[in-house]
Amino acid sequence: MGVVGELLKGLKVTGMELVRTVTGRRMLTTQYPKEKRVKPQRFHGRHVLNRYPDGMEKCIGCELCAGACPARCIYVRGEDNDPENPTSPGERFGFVYEINMLRCIFCGLCVEACPTEAITMTHLFEISTTNREDAMYTRDELLMHPDGTVPHMFPDDPLADLGELDSADGWVRATAPSGYAAYEGVQMWQGTPGPADWSPEPDQDERDA
Ligand code: SF4
Ligand code: SF4
Fold it and tell me: What is the maximal distance between C-alpha atoms in the chain?
């Protein structure tokens, strides 16, 4: 096939794509930000630090997430809990917690390494920044509020979809008992942001029966 033949062959492919697009048979364009695609359940978006239903922080400052991170973008410093007013159920809690989103490759290894499901990932992908400092997520920006909601760095940004912070990986939705009898019968949060939508845990006797 000569040059003209190759040219016609290429134009035919281009023409077919044009027809498919114009007729809507292969509409690949999403009118973002007006429209947003539903992301897969296991989508790896920005991280959050979770709490137990009694408000205790799940992070025990063990630094396993930092050790597992292939991009070396997590910085954790643990500190001993105050016995009278502990921050986490462990001996220590994550006193400093930072993630450098400029280096993060969203692999999720930190989530897998965490023994307490403290660090999980949401469906939020709108995390672009205009300077490097804003890309350093600090403990304050990562830690969920006591009511189960999660802070957003740019709550007033028209592109910020706060609802996406309620969606997270399905595979980390296990519950973790707080261990306090006072919380028997209280509906637990899931291991990820937002209120749980299942029945409260029964008490120990009921479970053992
Ligand atoms: S998702 Fe991967 S690269 Fe990002 S902080 Fe976690 S372990 Fe590190
Ligand atoms: S997030 Fe998990 S793995 Fe990382 S320091 Fe806290 S408890 Fe340890």
Answer: 84
Q: Is residue 39 part of a domain?
A: no
What's the confidence (pLDDT) of residue 39? 80
Ligand 1 centroid to 99 CA: how many Å?
Answer: 8
Query: Do 82 and 1 share a structural domain?
Result: no
* pTM, 2 dp: 0.71
Handedness of CA 139, 140, 144, 146 (dihedral sign): positive
DSSP element (H, E) containing 8: helix 3-22
- 74 & 9 share domain: no
pLDDT at 98 exceeding the cut of 60:
yes
Query: Do 16 and 78 reside in the same domain of the chain?
Result: no
CA 92, chain centre distance (Å): 23
CA–centroid distance, 81 to ligand 2, in Å, is 15
Pocket test for ligand 2, best of 72, 76, 137 (most atoms within 8 A of CB): 76
Residue of 72, 88, 116, 121 with the most ligand 2 atoms within 8 Å of its CB, for mutation? 116
